[in-house]
Each structure stands twice: as structure tokens, then as C-alpha cells.
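Case study B.
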Amino acid sequence: MLNFVDTVQDAVAGIKDGSTVMIGGFGNAGQPFELIDALMDCGATDLTVVNNNAGQGDQGLALLIRKGRVRKMICSFPRQSDSWHFDAKYKAGEIELELVPQGNLAERIRAAGAGIGGFFTPTGYGTMLAEGKETRIIDGRGQVFETPLHADVALIKALTADGRGNLVYRKTARNFGPIMAAAAKHTIVQVSDIVPTGGLDPENVVTPGIYVNSIVKVA
Amino acid sequence: MSSETNQPAALQSAPEPLGRDDLARLVARDIAPGSFVNLGIGQPTLVSNYLTAEQNITLHTENGMLGMGPAAEGDAIDGDLINAGKIPVTELPGASYFHHADSFAIMRGGHLDICVLGAFQVSATGDLANWHTGAPGAIPAVGGAMDLATGAKDVFVMMTLLTREGASKIVEACTYPLTGVGCVTRVYTDKAVFLTGPNGVTVRETFGCTLAELQELVPVPLTAAVP
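Model:
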């Protein structure tokens, strides 16, 4: 069921404590700052957040972490020059980290959206990130079993939605948006523009509206 | 060749060690025309400065783009158009955008010809350590390093041969946590270019040293590469 909502507050109102929330973006590109701010204001806590990074600077996901709303981060690259809020929480033992190679992160998200029960990949084989995981030799290469990564909610940013919830993105801000939209039970999208049904060329739609639940226009 | 420690006549040698830019120029020259290439963050990014239009190289960035152009400046800076190091970049004619799972399928599916990475250590059999020192309290961050190391057809490493303390970064077995097993095919350093593989380490050329002098620095057996 697709809803167009008027405010980011309405869009995130149903997010419960303890939820697993996927947040789109690679660094700041594609990060849905307004939805994250609304999530902060709604007070939901004890969250597991899936994002490539663990916040940068003093905005968005970094603030959600600073305020102690995130119990666990699942990400590939938490440590950056400006990831001080995550760094402090991690060193204080106040946040759990599941570190996932970036391609495994993307493919685990994709697998969840596609109904795949898991997959074997050479990425990580023979490294500490494969410790304790099932391995096989396939076509002569060591491979590691990885499981799908589901979420209760996805918060993503797109450029334009049409009346059916079809989405297009902008440049490298696309990144995790399309696969997170498919992997979450409830996908909330902030867009810069909403056009009438038929306003997007069907040949150019990147995320079909079937994956989208709530859309909010952000100025 | 009378012995492994004598300088073979065939081995190319330059009089001085190579600086970072000369090394980047050398790597760029060795990339075959028409290749699809991913340049890692840091020193490997310098390689793009020396790729020529005639080489017709397509650069991939793992956050979802083929056809990446040079770093953006001034009005061209666009927060939606960044590279894997989160630096604003530009797009070239013929560029394409795709989502993260497709971008990593490009790597993991063996479609990239070459990736160029930095390293802490490379072992005699091409194991790579470049993501984590393993030091107590260090926050681990892996990004796309493991996918690049295992996915690209050729994995080139660029690094100084020695640590600040003078230890060789080419080692019998890596002591830092591994990024990938047996994945490195070539190592470009300031003192030599090494080829790595299941048969050990061979030296393609040296810079400012003889093979014998190089062997004094590197704790694995070195032989001259067959040209």
C-alpha cells in the first residue's frame, strides 16, 4: 500500500523501538538527512542500523548514534576522519559493530529483497571476517556462506517519484537505495520532486513502486 | 644467469628509487588500452593523473559509476557525484550509474580488468593485508577492499617497499589480518616491481639497486622475471 505523506514526521511515526532500519547513502551522497532527523525526533531507540558507514560529521546518522539510539551498526566502513561520534561510542563499549565487506553488505541486502536464503562468495575467504562461517571450495576457490540481511524499515532518498511510487535517483546518490527499498518490509522515501503518474519514462524507472510504501517530498 | 644474487643482464634497472608520481606513471603505462580499472583510495588514485586519452581506460568507482572523470573543482562540485573516497568527481561522456549490488557484481563477477590498491604487506604467494592493523582498540573498517582483492582479474599493489622502521612489506607470510588470499599479481614499489604468484616472487625491474641489494632487504627468495 502506497501512501504520500505530508511531513517527514508522519513518514517515520510508525518506527518502533528495537527496529532494524536500513538507511541509504554512501557518505553524505544519498543520505536521507530529513528522514533521519525525524527518526531522531520521534524517539525510537534500541535500533539496529544498516548503512555503509557509521555517520560522518555532526549530522544525520552521526547524531542518531551520538544520542544513543543505535544499539548496533551493520556497516562496511565505520572509521573515517570525521566519524567521531561512532568512534566514541565504540570505544566506550556502547555500540555493537557487525563489520561486513561492502560487496557482501550489498549482496546480503539484495538477497533479502530477492528472497534468496544465502549465497557463497570468495570475498572474505581466509580472513578474520569469515571466522565461524561455513565455507566450501567451489570451482576451485574457497568461498564463504553469507546470509540475507532483512530490515523492518528502509529510509532512502531519491530524486523523483511518480504517482505509483516509481523512483529515479541522481548520480552516485543512488548507491544502496534500490536494494534497500526491496529488502525492507516498509520503505520510506524522501524525494525532491513528485510528478503525476505517467510523468516518468517507464524505460528509465530505477526502483519500481511495488517496493515503496511511503513517499514524502522534502524541499 | 650464474647465480640468483648476480644482476642478470636482462633485468631492467633505473639509477634511482622511484618517487610516488613516477611510480604512478609506471603503473599507468602498464595498464592495457581499453581496460576497466578501479583505483583504490590514497596513492593508487595518483595513477589517474597519468592515464592518456589514447589508452581509453574506463574507471570504476564502487559507489556506483563507470566512466568516472577527474576530481571536480569549483562549480563542478556536486554532492551527489563522489568517488569511493567521498571526493567530488566528474563524469565523462559515456558514463553510467548503477546501484551498489550491481557495482559490486562488476567487481565480484570478474568484470574489472585491474584494481590498484595500497598495502601494509604482501606475502610471497600474493596474500594481501591492507585493511586493518589488528592493533588493540583499532576500529576496523574494510569497505570494498576484500571484494576488489578477490574480484578483479589482476590486483596491482602500490606501496613503499619498506616501512618507516625499515622492514620489508613483502614478507614470507602476512602478520597483519588478511584482505585476500593469493590475490596479488604485481607489486609496484619505489625500489622494484615484483610479480607474485604461486611460484613465488620474481623481479621485473629495479630502481636504484641491484637484484642482490634488493635481496638483502626482502626476506623471501627473489629471482629475475623472465621477460
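DSSP finds four helices and 14 strands in chain B. The remaining cases will be described in the next quarterly update.
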